[in-house]
Specification:
CATH class of chain A: Mainly Alpha
Structural class of chain A: mainly alpha
Oligomer: heterodimer
CATH architecture of chain A: Orthogonal Bundle
Largest sheet of chain B: 6 strands, mixed
Number of helices of chain B: 8
Largest interface: A-B, 20 and 21 residues
Strand order of the largest sheet of chain B: 5-6-7-3-8-9
Distance between the termini of chain A: 23 Å
Shape of chain B: globular
Number of helices of chain A: 10
Radius of gyration of chain B: 18 Å
Structural class of chain B: alpha/beta
CATH superfamily of chain A: MetI-like
Shape of chain A: elongated
CATH topology of chain A: MetI-like fold
């Protein structure tokens, strides 16, 4: 069954190769998959993009990590009672509607052109998603378990720590996974702006300046593979942590 | 009038959900170390009575115990156990909540495992059968050695074999620690087998129709189910139930 996952990508690559080989499209803007893969291998062997990939990963991990550290407790508090959620609902919905990247020019003015601006925007984007999903998870918690804990004499803090946190975890993990994808998007986008010393986004723009089309495709595919790898990592962690899910 | 040995006294308890009256002047007394069965038709408010006993203090429900001396076993054990905790952690949870020290915890675990033949402590609840999950729920309720044990239809989701097993565990615990037990059931056999006082409730709006005493002494075992005495009490309960509904 697992092998079947690769059938569609292989067919697409095959069609791509045929279209390019048959010169149906402009090969300058659409290099073949073989040329693109060769470019990826060349860039990796030369080591010119290693520091860019590393810089992007570090920014993503920092931004995402900060969002998880404060987004989860904040979501627990916001979702703890319907009354509290109602008070936060408007601000959460407003913030969810703001494209995070619109904050970047402002962050550049406040924090300068360094990593802080990029990470701040990523933290904003990821935090809102994590808070929203965690709060939803808390509100969907099984009442019977909360009643059981209350009857055992559990305090509000103990209920938050022992029940709400775990009950909300499946939904929280969904938020954490989406937040990671958002961090990837925001970081790469902000790296395309002025002042970045290294990063996948910067490399894509550099290749654009010199019309290195194969290089652009190579970096796009590397971005996709990076996003996929991060997603697989979170799904793996999710399965390990939420072992009771589906049982 | 509240007697000296009375631990719970319910007087003229009324309960409405919206415009619908559920409980209509419910009054009865529970003495220390009694096993009471609340027996009535489905939806008559048996669980509502338990919730009134476990809930906040009201004038209609006088209680001579504090909230930490009460434990509750829920009908839906699957939704009351914590699947992210092992069975051991589930059972210990009430003691952790009460911030008991390790010595007390070890002592209590030994006391409880003496009664229950249960060796799956390191597994998770979802790895157990329904009967075993109910045993974990029962062990968790009993780990605090409660004075009052409220049990809400504990056998409704169990097959007969597990049903008998859980009943035996309840009686074994009762024999050793003599708590006061109030058990909600809609099964006559369970009520007669376990209780020394069976309260027959009418259909909604619920009233106490009669209270039947079961003179059979404890310990009780499976042979009681086949005895003449058991059938006589069962018939008495059945007659009272038919008159009530």
């Amino acid at each position: 069954m697992r092998k079947k996952k690769w059938i569609v990508p292989i067919i697409i690559l095959g069609i791509w190769q045929i279209v390019v080989s048959g010169r149906i499209i402009d090969t300058f803007f659409f290099p073949s998959p073989i040329e693109t893969m060769s470019e990826i291998i060349r860039l990796i062997i030369q080591g010119t993009i290693v520091k860019d990939i590393f810089a992007t990963i570090v920014r993503i991990i920092i931004g995402w990590g900060i969002a998880v550290i404060w987004g989860v407790p904040l979501g627990l508090i916001v979702g703890y009672s319907k009354n509290t959620y109602d008070k936060f609902e408007l601000i959460i919905d407003l913030c969810r509607s703001i494209p995070a990247i619109t904050l970047f020019p402002l962050c550049l003015l406040i924090f300068g052109i360094g990593d802080l601006s990029k990470i701040t925007v990523a933290v904003f984007a990821a935090t809102i998603i994590i808070v929203f999903n965690t709060a939803q998870g808390v509100m969907q918690a099984k009442k019977s378990r909360i009643i059981a804990a209350k009857l055992m004499g559990a305090s509000k803090m103990q209920i938050l720590k022992h029940i709400f946190f775990w009950e909300s975890l499946p939904q929280t993990m969904i938020g954490i996974r989406i937040a990671l994808s958002f961090c990837l998007i925001v970081i790469i986008l902000t790296e395309m702006f002025i002042g970045t010393y290294a990063g996948i986004g910067k490399k894509i723009i550099d290749f654009q300046y010199v019309y290195n089309i194969k290089g652009i495709y190579a970096m796009i595919i590397i971005t996709g593979l990076l996003g996929y790898a991060l997603n697989v990592f979170v799904i793996y962690a999710e399965k390990k942590i939420i072992h009771w899910s589906g049982n | 009038m509240t007697t000296i040995s009375s631990i719970i006294s319910i007087k003229n308890l009324n309960k409405c959900f919206g415009e619908q009256q559920i409980l209509n002047n419910i009054s009865f007394e529970v003495n220390k170390q009694e096993i009471i069965a609340l027996f009535g038709p489905n939806g008559c408010g048996k669980s509502t009575i338990l919730n009134s006993i476990s809930g906040e203090n009201k004038n209609e429900v006088q209680k001579k115990f504090n909230s930490t001396e009460l434990s509750y076993v829920f009908q839906n054990y699957r939704d009351s156990l914590f699947p992210w905790k092992t069975n051991y952690e589930n059972i210990l949870f009430p003691l952790k909540v009460q911030k008991k020290n390790e010595q007390v915890i070890t002592e209590r675990i030994n006391q409880i495992t003496e009664i229950f033949d249960f060796n799956e402590l390191q597994k998770y609840p979802y790895e157990l059968s329904g009967g075993q999950q109910q045993i974990v729920a029962l062990m968790r309720a009993l780990i605090t050695l409660p004075k009052i044990l409220l049990i809400d239809e504990p056998f409704s989701a169990l097959d007969y074999k597990n049903n008998l097993m859980v009943r035996q565990y309840i009686l074994k615990y009762y024999e050793k620690y003599k708590p006061t037990i109030i058990i909600v059931t809609h099964n006559i056999e369970e009520a007669v087998y376990l209780a020394n006082k069976i309260i027959i409730l009418s259909k909604s709006p619920t009233q106490v129709k009669s209270i039947i005493h079961n003179p059979k002494k404890y310990p009780r075992d499976i042979n009681f189910l086949q005895s003449q005495q058991f059938h006589e009490i069962k018939n008495k309960v059945l007659t009272a139930f038919q008159e009530a509904t």
